[in-house]
Specification:
This protein has three helices and two strands; from the N terminus they run ααββα. With 129 residues, it is mainly alpha-helical. It has a domain of 74 residues. α1 packs across α3. It is elongated.
Length: 129
């Protein structure tokens, strides 16, 4: 632990933001999943939803439309009302690219939150001294 004192602060900030904080969030989400339901059951139901009725080179996904929602429907779903999803078969490669992009974007958001928290913690810690 004494050697950590000599590590440059930038290295500690990067390590916390890119490794420690995202790993802590991932472990927390995993534990939350364990408490709420079975991870294996969630995996199987998601796989069935993606593959049910699709050819081997396609997956089922909600239909994307650029149209505005009808006037009588609220733009945001209300609690207790199911979200409308019209499943359609789309190319598996396109789905993989979109999903990978979404995962990377979520990781970067978590990294930015971690970096912001680290900077704020350092600011308050330096004021106390």
């Amino acid at each position: 632990m004494k050697t950590l004192r000599y590590v440059p602060p930038v290295y500690r900030a990067v390590t916390f933001s890119f490794i420690t904080f995202p790993a802590s969030i991932l472990v927390g989400l995993f534990l939350l999943t364990l408490l709420m339901s079975s991870p294996a059951g969630l995996f199987i139901s998601t796989a069935r939803t993606l593959l049910d009725g699709a050819s081997p080179t396609q997956v089922m996904s909600c239909k994307r439309t650029n149209e505005a929602p009808p006037v009588d429907l609220p733009a945001i779903s209300q609690p207790g009302k199911p979200v409308r999803c019209e499943p359609e078969a789309i190319d598996a490669r396109a789905w993989i690219i979109d999903t990978d992009f979404a995962i990377r974007r979520q990781y970067l958001v978590i990294v930015l939150i971690g970096m912001t928290g680290w900077v704020i913690r350092k600011l308050f810690r330096s004021e106390e001294r």
